Amino acid sequence: MNISTCRWLFHMTLQYQWQLADELPMVYGTCICIYCALQADVKVGTDIYVALALFGYSAVVTLVYVQIRKPVFHQVAYGLEVAIVLVRSMLHQIEVRKTNARAYSELVHMFWLGVGAFGVSFVLWNIDNIFCTNLRALRAVLPAPLGPLFQLHAYWHIGTALGCYASIVYQQYLRLVKLGTVDRFRIRRLAMVVPYIDRCEKTE
Question: Rounded distance, CA 163 to CA 169, Å?
Fold first, then answer.
């Protein structure tokens, strides 16, 4: 909700302070995903060193970004975090594959849903950046109801929202696998696409 509000404020005002409020929470939120991915095997307790390292990373990114004001810096910082989550998730999948085929299948589906949503939205976002003038000209001649379909930047927000959501459900499900309680739950899907975790009925 916080990221969505800040994103709305940035797009409505295009002011730098709201750009920071839009982009920096992406770094902070992904740090949480990194922590979950790195700590999925831990049964109890908290690894304070991992938490402090991620807090330090967030602080450094914030301080540097405020000073240099280069969007590419944020993109690299955020991309590095996403890479860590992806690599650790794939390693977890290799481990789960050896012990639980059903859980492995569910993890793989959610993994590729997240990667696919991010990937497609990233491509559309870059097309929008590169061909902005052409797309604006196209929207100008299209009937009003069709114009919004070519607002490719909007698909970036939809795709990243789906990708983030899939990643969160992935981490929750992975945690259940590592705790040995996953058989009490099932992955359901809204519209056969959007996953969520549901407790099993006693007869299942």
Answer: 10
